[in-house]
Amino acid sequence: MSELTWACRPFAELSGAELYEILRLRCEVFVVEQRCLYLDVDGADPQALHLMAWQAGRLQAYARLFAPGLKTADVCFGRVLTAPAARGTGLGHELVRRILAECERHWPDQSITIFAQSHLQRFYGAHGFEPVGAEFMEDDIPHQEMQRKAQP
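RE: above sequence
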């Protein structure tokens, strides 16, 4: 298999083919696989940076990143996913490491707040995130707000 190619770009710089693949994979994972009916195209994509890992023309990992003040007072990221065929390879942890690096590059010395599916608390905890407040339901899935304090 070929190596991964990583890119992080604003919405305006995404090609039509890239955007199509992003939306296709988000739908495959969040709507079909997780059986969750929700509006994925929520109007926030134009304000986000889009972090992508490509392999042989297929999107393997993805997340969208937001500047402070857009989703939360802190930097925020979401729509984190790995393609089903790429799971179990460590790509999810590599994706989070790259998310954190991009957040630091674009918004240095900032705390990061996320709204993680509750079953992923240990996964994000391995990257320095800690739970904040009580678990809550979003789109019929238990979620947990988590924060990673600014790293001096």
